[in-house]
Amino acid sequence: MLNVAIIIGSTREGRFGPVVADWFTAQAKAHGGLQVDVIDLADFDLPVALPPGLPPTPRMAGLSQRLHAADAFVVVTPEYNRSFPASVKNVIDWHYAEWQAKPVGFVSYGGISGGQHAAQALRIVFAELHAVTVRETVSFVDPWRAFDADGRHLDPAGPERAAKTMLDQLVWWGRALKTAKAEHPYGA
User: Fold this and answer.
1) What is the pLDDT of residues 60-106, one digit of tens each?
2) Backbone dihedral region of 9: left (phi > 0), alpha (psi from -120 to 50 degrees) or beta?
3) pLDDT surpasses 70 at 33
4) Which fold has domain 2-183?
5) What are the domain boundaries of the chain?
6) From CA 67, how far away is CA 10, in angstroms rounded?
């Protein structure tokens, strides 16, 4: 089993992220062979001031352990001002080794770009942390009109294909990197 952490990036009141994350979580569970851990950043009071040295603070121990236990990540992110929310950058910056030599996929949502500016900006950040981002993404243009009141996508065929393709890549990279690290520990 590959342990995949699905990170809900938006922490704003009235956010749409949980709807998108719930839909994607169902896709990941249906994909098979995955143990899914949904991490909602709204549940954590991440500090905004980084101390020297950067060890996670005791109040973040549970979050840090969950990130460390993950074999792969999927970031569910909105696009704010052509980038990702500060909450996502904050959780990334509080951790380092937790991301190394692990694959990262993106589920983005927003206006006309479908959140793709946020996903592209995150690729640069994760590359700096020695993570591998998968090429395929799941993107929702104007998602507020794409889901019904129960969180079901109104036209699911395209998004479901995109989710399967992205998950296939995430699983391949997750297994390959997990095997490689077991044989040769990663040390950047």
Assistant:
1) 889 999 999 999 999 999 999 999 999 999 999 989 999 999 999 99
2) alpha
3) yes
4) Rossmann fold (3.40.50)
5) 2-183
6) 17
